[in-house]
Write a structure and sequence with these properties.
Blueprint: E1 2-4, E2 7-8, E3 11-15, E4 17-19, E5 24-26, E6 34-39, E7 44-49, E8 57-60
Length: about 90
């Protein structure tokens, strides 16, 4: 799980990276199944499958319920976890 309280303009940004011995990289399916992100100041959760992570930094727009941001469809998407326990 990762969290963010850092707001820039109309979005919150979070790093979707892990690290090996030499560099930072976007998480892979071998490392995680889901990235659970929490936007602290808005009390909003995102449940993102690792296969949807396309960049090292991801943006969230929790203040705009009509946003078409790439990860907004994962807002409060707890149903994706199915049988997983958090």
């Amino acid at each position: 799980m990762k969290s963010s309280a850092y707001r820039t303009r109309d979005r919150y940004r979070l790093s979707a990276t892990g690290s090996n011995h030499h560099s930072r990289h976007v998480y892979t399916p071998e490392e995680i199944d889901f990235l659970i992100a929490f936007v602290v100041t808005r009390n909003v959760w995102y449940v993102i499958p690792v296969t949807a992570l396309l960049a090292k930094n991801i943006n969230f727009y929790p203040e705009d319920r009509t946003s078409r941001g790439r990860y907004e469809k994962y807002r409060e998407a707890w149903h994706q976890l199915g049988g997983w326990k958090v």
